[in-house]
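In the current project phase, the collection of sequences with tokenised folds has grown. A representative record is quoted in full directly below:
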Amino acid sequence: MILKGRVHKFWDNINTDDIIAARYLVTTNEKELGKHCMENISPSFVKEVKKGDIIVAGKNFGCGSSREHAPLAIKGCGISAVIAESFSIIFFRNAINIGLPFIELEDTSAISSKDILEINLDKGIIKNITKKDTYRIRPFPEFLKRIIKSKGLINYIKQRYHLYV
């Protein structure tokens, strides 16, 4: 599985309120949430994002409340993956649940906004096309790739067990 997109760079400790403000938690529609992603910390973010783009951040991405709305908003605005030095455990879990690829990279400091990245989840390689750098990551396990391809855990379970609920 290969993802390619332009980087939107953020810093350490991006919390769920930064990702999606509490005033928008009246819906779980990812497209609607996506219209307001990051607006409190980067008002122009949703206007600049193109489908397939990638968020890169520092440590503790997704800290704060245990709301699934945060990864839904990220996915809803067109982001294809989030790369960070570390993730809040609840964000990590919620990202799996909705099928949003998350990648831990020990040091993201060499990656800049607007760089073009190509992520190979099978081989565990991130290529920075802009800077001609390569980073090694842990390859995604098969079951996580299947959840992502299914667009989330619930869809994966429905498909795997032929459930029509």
In short: The helical segments are 16-19, 30-34, 45-48, 69-76, 89-98, 142-149, 153-160. The chain is about 30% helix and 20% strand.
